[in-house]
Design goal:
alpha/beta; UDP-N-acetylmuramoyl-L-alanine:D-glutamate ligase; nine-stranded mixed sheet; globular; disordered C terminus
Length: 457
């Protein structure tokens, strides 16, 4: 699969590691793993527009400039959005593209993010650094404890963080890199939170295509960040958290170049069948399929379902070190590089982030170490989502340079970690996209003159 051209593997393959052999991995994983050709991801330039075999077949078109979608101080309340259409249908708008560059399937959750101290967590009996699914009563108890605190509300969720960052990176004014077309399908309720969510994504130039569920309640995530930059998440899924696969969604999937599935969907009732149908249609229509691992506890609860989708459909897998080890059923003492290498036997491109220690990219049984970009950590929430956006952006911009793409992803993540809030800001996205464009130009120039010397991105 892509990025796995012989040139790329020759330049960036890693030496073998002294660790357990592939055949010693859990039986369930070996059954799921399937060797297959890597042609679907082969990237080449045609003029200045990227073409990916069987995948990125649609052209890019310009759309209007996006507004800033920065998180807003909520102080315990949300502003209403007048004129909000609560009967939006699930379809590509009439003025929309012939093909979407990215379609995301995920959970639509409104984030309430605030800074707290360790004593706050201890008082409420919340384990720091974890993610827990809570009910309506528990959510009310935590929000009451936060009464009087200043916190921010945002159209959150892991997937939307990645899509917004990708939209901002892809809002290029250069004719060489037309603006990316990005859409999301997810469930929200016909309540004020659902209206808030859809309005915020529209402002970020992410097309939210799903109609609200009548009388449904939109899910929320309370994100509590302590002074050491660790975040604790409490997720309330609401009554509208489900995904059904109908003819409208099937039509959208068939017109998408990349389908990305958020791992949190796997823990929702009756979603596995919908995910599998979407992946089947995406694969038949030549799209690349990416899956985010999302959470260790989610992987453990839905292990077999995850492997069914990941091993049989995924072209790209995004995970952090703990999630990657959970997929492989490796102990916490095993290196993330080992996990990246093992997973790459089943998935053509594997991205494994390891916080301040950097990240690893696994391709065809090999792993590449990517050093972390320097930053002063403020809030680690959203770092992995930002990293994924950098990888996808590099692919969609036509680069076959694995190291350059990964360094971009590392920089995007560092910017997000160095700020309060999960969203990549517009000015930072512009700066990163411009630097990456210069890097690609330099890379292409070196290729034209027959040299491998390329300045570091």
């Amino acid at each position: 699969m892509a990025l796995a051209s012989s040139r790329l593997l020759h330049r960036f393959s890693a030496p073998p590691l002294s660790s357990p052999s592939y055949s010693s991995l859990p039986l369930a994983r070996r059954r799921a793993a399937r060797p297959r050709g890597y042609i679907r991801f082969a990237v080449r330039w045609e003029g200045r527009v990227v073409v990916v075999a069987r995948a990125l077949l649609g052209g890019f078109e310009d759309v209007g400039a996006s507004e800033s979608d920065d998180e807003e101080d909520a102080h315990g309340a949300l502003r209403s959005h007048e004129g909000e259409d609560l009967s939006l249908e699930l379809h590509a708008p009439s003025s929309g593209p012939e093909r979407w560059d990215i379609l995301g399937l995920g959970q639509a959750m409104v984030d309430f993010s605030g800074m707290v101290d360790d004593e706050f967590l201890e008082r409420l009996g919340i384990e720091k650094g974890t993610r827990k699914v809570i009910n309506h009563e528990e959510r009310g108890r935590v929000l009451r404890a936060m009464d009087g605190c200043s916190y921010k509300a945002a159209a959150g969720g892991s997937l939307s963080n990645s899509l917004v960052a990708l939209s901002r990176l892809g809002s290029s004014r250069s004719p060489s890199y037309p603006e990316l077309r990005i859409a999301m399908a997810a469930s929200v309720g016909s309540d004020p939170l659902g209206s808030f969510y859809r309005a915020k994504l529209r402002r970020a130039n992410v097309h939210f295509l799903s109609k609200p569920i009548k009388d449904g309640t939109t899910g929320t995530v309370i994100v509590l960040t302590t002074p050491d930059a660790q975040r604790t998440m409490l997720a309330y899924q609401g009554t509208s958290s489900t995904l059904s696969y109908d003819s409208d969604l099937a039509s959208i999937v068939s017109k998408s170049n990349v389908l990305i599935v958020e791992g949190y969907l796997f823990e929702l009732p009756h979603t596995i069948k919908a995910i599998k149908q979407a992946c089947e249609d995406a694969h038949k229509n030549g799209a690349l399929i990416a899956v985010t691992a999302s959470d260790v506890s989610c992987i453990k609860r839905c292990y077999n379902d995850f492997w069914d989708i990941v091993a049989n459909y995924a072209d790209i897998l995004f995970a952090n070190a703990n999630e990657a080890r959970a997929f492989c059923e490796l102990s916490s003492t095993e290196s993330p590089m080992s996990a990246a290498r093992y997973l790459s036997h089943s998935v053509p491109l594997v991205s494994v982030t390891d916080g301040v220690h950097g990240s690893y990219i696994g391709v065809k049984g090999e792993a590449v170490y990517i050093p972390p970009s320097p930053c002063i950590p403020v809030d680690t929430c959203g770092a992995g989502d930002a990293y994924a956006s950098g990888i996808l952006y590099g692919i969609l911009r036509g680069s076959s340079d694995l190291k350059g793409i990964s360094l971009l992803a590392s920089r995007v993540a560092a910017v997000v970690v160095g700020q309060q809030g999960t969203r990549l800001q517009v000015q930072d996205a512009d700066r990163l996209a411009e630097s990456f464009a210069l890097y690609l130009d330099n890379l292409e120039f070196c290729s034209d003159v027959g040299t491998d010397h390329v300045s570091n991105f």
